[in-house]
Amino acid sequence: MSSELSLIDKAKFVAAKQASEYVKSGMKVGLGTGSTAAWLVQCLGEMVRENGLKIKGVPTSNRTAKLARQVGIDVITLEEAKWLDITIDGTDEYDDELTLIKGGGGAHLREKIVATASDRMIVIADATKKVDTLGAFPLPIEVVPFGLPVTQGLIEEMLTGVDVLGRDIVQRMQGKKPYVTDEGNFILDLHLKRISDARQLSLVINQIPGVVENGLFIDICDVVVVGHGDGKVTVRDITNDTSEVVRFDVLDDDNIFVDISD
């Protein structure tokens, strides 16, 4: 329990709490990566321990797998699951069409595979993640280490022919060393500022040799659950074209988890 959560953390918590209601016993559930998804894993773990929820969780990263096991969720691989009932994950940006930019946590390759192997994808977010036009958050591109300068040069050349506002490319680092994904690849962050046509950009990026996957999630997200610091949660279902508002009372003595981080 904590009375010192920031408004952003409270927003993430209530979004995760609301999204956990989509999960029922017997489901196979994709578990996202990142600080917002970690709240969801904690909520599901509480439901497993205290309410007898029985689920199989498929994590999208090694650190999510570790957390899921710690809170009591039965972890299996996607190969064992074959297909999932639902995936719940966070996002770095989303627009009106529920197109996403993901990968700030370095796991967008696994996240996209797991999400597309699910009947539904639920995205949980705080209100700051909503944008009119994608691109303020850098677009992550997972690339193989072999021939990295060639791959980066091809991406730079490609960007001259698409409608974006910025074209800076920065290799993601972890301290003084390149950041390495769970698949052993590198990440290039594209600082585009504005993406006019996400569908076109995604297609041309993935045609470049050396690119494994980009962080644009198009026609994958079905529902976005947005939390606010005052306990309000908005739920938008793009498949059924519905919206609703739910409200939680977030009090100092609520069972809110602490020590959750990326």
Strand and helix layout:
Elements: H1 7-19, E1 28-31, H2 35-51, E2 56-59, H3 62-70, E3 74-75, H4 78-81, E4 84-89, E5 93-94, E6 100-101, H5 108-116, E7 118-126, E8 139-143, H6 148-159, E9 168-171, E10 173-174, E11 177-178, E12 186-191, H7 198-206, E13 211-214, E14 216-217, E15 223-227, E16 232-237, E17 242-247
Parallel strand pairs: 1-2, 1-4, 2-3, 4-7, 7-15
Antiparallel strand pairs: 5-6, 6-14, 8-12, 8-13, 9-12, 10-11, 15-16, 16-17
What's the gist of this structure?
Helix content is 28%, strand content 27%. With 262 residues, the chain is α/β, with parallel strands linked by helices. A hairpin with a 4-residue loop joins β15 (223-227) and β16 (232-237).
Outline, from the CA principal axes? globular
Mean pLDDT: 94
Read across the widest sheet, the strand sequence of neighbours is 3-2-1-4-7-15-16-17
Give helix and strand order, one letter per element, not per position: HEHEHEHEEEHEEHEEEEHEEEEE
Please give the alpha-carbon distance between the first and last residues: 19 Å
**Contiguous helical run count:** 7
Radius of gyration: 18 Å
The percentage helix is 25-40%
Fraction of residues in β-strands? 25-35%
Main β-sheet, in a few words?
A: 8 strands, mixed
Low-confidence stretches: 257-262
**What is the number of beta strands?**
17
